[in-house]
Specification:
5 helices; alpha/beta; binds magnesium ion; Rossmann fold; 7-stranded mixed β-sheet; binds guanosine-5'-diphosphate
């Protein structure tokens, strides 16, 4: 069955005190550098242009933002990393916040975003290391796919995953064109309803 997003609503924002909402059926969190396209991905997925704030000024979001989708699972917009002008103190707080959140045991899946045009940075590698350390299942997503020729997207996305040391697969996604949307929805469906029959693999 094809997975679709019918409703999306903002629930709450949480900071270091980690006052998080009651767990839902699943919790998918979006991580990545500042400006990589986290908020845009949430907006384009839900078809709600102003749901997650997007900004041309990176480094502004310092909170964990919760969105409830279809009334059954959370999509979580995490603060970005790697904003060069961020004060040292902010960087430290970011680390604490991430550590607390990722070790909370609530996260069912992580979407890690990397710009399709750039090699993973040292901070991306660190982030990827945390994800493996905490043993949280993940999907790599190469963002801003519209910036590359269509014929190059798939290969560039997969190459990014390989450079990160992951199995060579990433979804090429564009918030502008909707490229990769169907693939991402399928992934979300598998996370939210892991026991549902996957099309093409009929039960014996
Ligand atoms: N061309 C293009 N621009 C994008 C895409 N996604 C995000 N952007 C732009 O990148 C900037 C940062 O996006 P944002 O979603 O705020 O990034 P965040 O900091 O990771 O939440 C904004 O100017 C967006 O318009 C995309 O798929 N294609
Ligand atoms: Mg954002």
């Amino acid at each position: 069955m094809e997975f679709s997003i019918k409703t999306a609503e903002f629930v709450t924002s949480a900071g270091l005190t980690l006052e998080l909402p009651q767990p839902a059926g699943a919790e998918i969190a979006v991580v990545g550098k500042s400006n990589v396209g986290k908020s845009s991905l949430i907006n384009s997925l839900t078809g709600r242009n102003k749901l997650a704030k997007t900004s041309a000024t990176p480094g502004k979001t310092r909170l964990i933002n919760y969105f409830l989708l279809n009334g059954e699972f959370y999509l979580v917009d995490l603060p970005g990393y790697g904003y060069a002008k961020a004060p040292k103190d902010d960087q430290k707080k970011w680390g604490e916040l991430m550590e607390r959140y990722l070790s909370s045991g609530r996260v069912s899946h992580l979407f890690m975003l990397i710009d399709i045009r750039h090699d993973p940075t040292e901070l991306d590698r660190q982030m990827f290391g945390y994800m493996l350390y905490y043993g949280i299942p993940y999907t790599l997503i190469a963002t801003k796919a519209d910036k590359l020729a269509k014929s190059k997207r798939k290969q560039a996305a997969n190459a990014l995953a390989k450079k990160l040391g992951a199995p060579p697969y990433a979804i090429a996604y564009s918030s502008e064109t909707g490229d990769g949307r169907a693939e991402l929805l399928e992934r979300i469906g598998a996370v939210v309803h892991p026991d549902a029959e996957i099309s093409g693999t009929a039960a014996e």
